[in-house]
Amino acid sequence: MLIHSPWRSDFPALAALAAEGQTYLDSAATSQKPQAVIDALLGYYSAGAANVHRAQHLPGERATRAFEATRGTAARWLNAASSEEIVFTRGATEALNLLAYGLEEHFHSGDEIVISALEHHANLLPWQQLAQRRDLALIVLPVTAEGRIDLAAAEHVIGPRTRLLAVSQLSNVLGTWQPVCELVAMAKAHSAITVIDGAQGVVHGRHDVQQLACDFYVCSSHKLYGPDGVGVLYGRAAALERVLPWQFGGEMLLQTDYYTAKFRPAPLGFEAGTPAVSSVIALGATLDYLASLDAHAVLAHETALHQELVAGLKARAGVRLLGEPDIALASFVVEDVHSADLAHLLTEQGIAVRAGHHCAMPLLRGLGLPGAIRASLGLYNDSSDLQRFFAALDQALEILQ
Amino acid sequence: MNLPSAAHAALAAFSEPMSWEQRARLLMSWGEQLAPLADEERTEGTRVTGCESQVWLVGAQQGDGWQFRASSDARLIRGLLALLLVRVNGLAADDLKQLDLADWFAQLGLARHLSPSRSNGLQAVLTRMAELTANAPR
Q1: Does the distance separating the beta carbons of A356 and B74 come in below 8 Å?
Q2: Catalytic residues of A
Q3: What's the pLDDT tens digit per position in B66-110?
Q4: Domain range spanning residue B33?
Q5: What ipTM describes this predicted complex?
Q6: What CATH number should be reported for the domain holding residue A269?
Q7: Which entry of B51, B77, B91, B129 is annotated as an active-site residue?
């Protein structure tokens, strides 16, 4: 049965890309934007741009209201206890760097940071570098063959020396949900700080940060159908109080003379300088758009289309999936075929997929693979995209095998 | 333009109108003709980093000109390397510096492979070539 996306026409880029002969299957890298987001960006700029939290004039007040409204919308989206728990950053990467610098004071030589083997570089390098600066041990949790962080191993590893746990909610390479609730509980039993990288997870289904019970949750707007240049750092109020400011500049201070300063509390204390005002406002429009959709219908669509993707890949001789993906994406390699060659020929046929190490070099190396192809889905994809993908895959393999 | 004869042959072959499948097969057949590198020539030192596939490049000055040899574990990249080598081999360092390789690949209908968003490494190979020739004793 052909699966149609009732939301496809909300995203004008899908028709534009189709007109260019492009089939977009790289939403896990960046997603296309609904008309509502484009309208919000256009509306803000055409009505009069202004800086936020500074001026008393009308455009300034309007921009500040809209900007702060997004903070409230984001807080509701994640079920944060208050909008004060939402910090805007440039992206998930910056949010993780903010934490790695802002929490540095709490780490002492010999302390342990626990991550997993499947982390994106954004949730590896800030901790790796913090470990080097403070002489800490970086502990890497192993991943099972299905692609899930090994809880039995975690039981052994997470202990009294663990100061921080930072793990992905949904793997950007394997498409597997991670047992974050269990891991957070283990870390909390030892009073460790808990960080969840929700860059991929936030896009699929709704997540409740109070239920996850983590200290911090980070995500990016651009994967969530919103504009780029914005990320969200959720921090539980008590957890945010432990973070020191890491960037200094305009509007993050209460008062200063030439030699000393007092800084604002969260969230503004972590938002030095002019933020991406238009993008934050448009992220609000994104979340409003997403909230207007039937969440069950979206999830059912994503699940059905993902099953079609996985079944189609499994049906092809020589194709090997990486892990057992739950949703959103599937990464694969083909026996005796170099992924770079396959990517080359898929590109020739207008199939936009990602090839390479997917910003998870150690994971791919651990699997003994130089790279893999990843096809990832958005709520706008449908069976026709997959049919074009599989036809192109078959053509490419005929040439290469 | 004073093209080496192998470059003439490449230009003639790739200038024919053809489908993307034919172009891909042609590229791979050029890759098959690439002289293989010995195992001891494929080292960390000769590996060109910044490529999605593994690429190795060695080069030596012979008389006035440079002779490069290269290999990759990916077949289409081998084809691109072969097309690169037929254009550059035999050139003196100064001529190499002047050479517009983007234009060369554009003439072959393969301009896209030098675009900045591609990580296939052709650009990294060019950078390595420039380093090899710049560091050579004169």
Answers
A1: no
A2: 359
A3: 999 999 989 999 999 999 999 999 988 888 888 888 889 999 988
A4: 5-135
A5: 0.89
A6: 3.40.640.10
A7: B51
